From TrEMBL:
Protein name (record): L-iditol 2-dehydrogenase
Keyword GTP-binding: no
Domain Enoyl reductase (ER): from-to ranges: 10-309
GO molecular function: metal ion binding; oxidoreductase activity
Top-level division of the source organism's lineage: Bacteria
Species assigned in the record: Thermanaeromonas toyohensis ToBE
InterPro entries for the chain: ADH-like_C (IPR013149), ADH-like_N (IPR013154), ER (IPR020843), GroES-like_sf (IPR011032), NAD(P)-bd_dom_sf (IPR036291), Zn_alcohol_dh (IPR050129)
Length: 346
């Protein structure tokens, strides 16, 4: 099969390799759509502490089961021919963090990862997932939208952990795919939602269905006029830029919540006025990943059209064009890019 290998920062090579060898209990998935995530693009640009090259990037996969375990162990599980979306990892359920209802911190999370990675024609889903990484798709949901289940699940984790309630005012900082997904989900949860960004082509799409947009290049991001001078109940920060983070921290109300949602590399620091934390009782928190329950519900949100995604998918690429897809993601061209290893209609 073909796979797009990340060789070193700034270099992708398409290689012909053998299918991932299957062990007893493994699944093999033919990848029909694979989302390009900011993490993939940043890894391509400057490397990643946990992803050592050569490696195949991509973790947002939807496809068809082409090999499934037979017998009693997989009686109700996904079978050959099933259309599925793949959770890129599954918590073990046994470690300290799993036992304390924090499965996103599970120490064994990446022991269940797909192999070799989503930018390939096929991926192996290991037996130790017990089929829990595979979710069947309803007939009327295409692979392209289904491949967005993982980012929607991450957004859902961010929204739920930030305890967003109906009627609250939420400020999302960032007009990338994750910022827009967070904003749309916060609307589904009944909040009034404002979003701040810097790119007109993205703000135009983001504005659909939200309560207000700030073009941070041309206006001050200030929620006080909309909240009787208080500021936002919850601020979700979906970019890693210091200046943008400062808009967020400045706009939270006393007693509110700031969620550092975007991935931030080790060593990232930010000056905080601790008065805001102590007397102001502002909660600063972060969220990463998703729980299996959130993944399942993210798929429901998409399948039932409670969240609209079609306008976020702005480009399709072949596997051969993976490097271009990563470059376009880094350049903030469009919004969400998908790799379609088998091309055609999805
Ligand atoms: Zn992702
Ligand atoms: Zn665990």
């Amino acid at each position: 099969m073909k796979a797009a290998f990340y060789i070193e920062p700034g270099q992708i090579e398409i290689r012909e390799v053998s299918l991932p060898p299957l062990e007893k209990g493994d699944w093999l998935i033919k990848v029909m759509a694979s989302g390009v995530c900011a993490t993939d693009a940043k890894t391509y640009l400057r490397g990643h502490p946990f992803i050592k090259p050569p490696a195949v990037l991509g973790h947002e996969v939807a496809g068809v089961v082409v090999a499934a375990p037979v017998g009693i162990n997989n009686k109700d599980g996904p079978q050959e021919g099933d259309r599925v979306v793949v959770a890129p990892y599954i918590p073990c359920g046994r470690c300290y963090w799993c036992s304390n209802e924090q499965p996103t911190q599970c120490t064994a999370l990446f022991a269940t990862s797909i192999e070799p990675g989503g930018f390939a024609e096929y991926v192996r889903v290991p037996a130790n997932t017990g089929g829990r990484a595979l979710y069947r798709l309803p007939d009327d949901l295409d692979y392209a939208e289904a491949s967005l289940t993982e980012p929607v699940a991450c957004a859902l984790h961010g929204i739920e952990a930030s305890r967003i309630k109906a009627g609250q005012t939420v400020l999302v900082i960032g007009d990338g795919p994750m910022g827009i997904l967070l904003a749309r989900l916060a609307k589904v949860f009944g909040a009034r939602v404002f979003l701040s960004g810097m790119l007109p082509h993205r703000l135009k799409i983001a504005a659909q269905g939200l309560d207000g947009i700030f073009d941070a290049c041309h206006e001050e991001v200030d929620l006080r006029p909309y909240t009787c001078g208080r500021g936002a109940d919850v601020v979700l920060i979906a970019v890693g830029v210091q200046e943008a983070i400062s808009y967020g921290v400045r706009n939270v109300r006393r007693g509110g919540i700031v969620n550092f949602f975007a991935g931030l590399p080790k060593g990232t620091t930010f000056p905080l006025d601790l008065e805001q934390v102590h007397y102001g009782e502002v909660t600063f928190m972060g969220t990463f990943g998703f729980t299996p329950g959130q993944f399942a519900r993210a798929l429901e949100f998409i399948a039932s059209r409670q969240i609209y995604l079609a306008d976020l998918i702005t480009a399709h690429y072949s596997l051969m064009e993976t490097e271009q897809a990563l470059k376009d993601t880094l350049a903030c061209n469009g919004l969400k890019s998908l790799i379609l290893p088998w091309g055609g209609e999805v």
